[in-house]
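As a representative case, we now present a protein record of this kind.
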Amino acid sequence: MIVEAIAFYIFAAVAVGAGVGVIAARNPIHSVLFLILAFFSSAGLFVLMGAEFLAMILVIVYVGAVAVLFLFVVMMLDIDFRRLRSGFMRYLPVGAGIGILLFAELVLVFASSEAPRAALPSALARGGASISNTRALGEILYTRYIIAFEGAGLILLVAMIGAIVLTLRRRPDLRRQKVPEQLARRKEDSLEVVKVPIGEGIS
């Protein structure tokens, strides 16, 4: 228990420090690196709580994809962050009010101890601690919340199709690859063998 408590305080302190570093760093590259550190620290906290599946998803999805994508976008785009941060003090009261509201909601959620128990299906309540974390999440997602899960999948599918349609606009000045014509092309249509006599060039 002492080792777990020490690990918890270390991960928590690193996560809070990394979160402060995300918003306090002047260099946007450093902000993204602090964000990756915060994700790793949060994954460590999930492991301590017995949620190994959530820790793995956090590392694979957010660190391996989202944070790295942020890093590449920030490195490739020439963004004037000083201009973006010029109105920070003007919007500080609004941001502080929203932060206080979210903090109050978190306090109310953690204060109600019956809410997590009510979210568990009856099968999980009968199984107790013998059911693994991954199986518990699977049974919750694919039984009680199957409609919301499928709805989220359909929304993501529509968003993906919309992005593809928007990027595949036909432009008259744009040359596109025509795969059927390339596959049907013969050697005689694209290759010409010219015999050049010795000492003479091609006119």
User: Anything to note?
Assistant: Residues 177 and 183 are 11 Å apart (CA to CA).
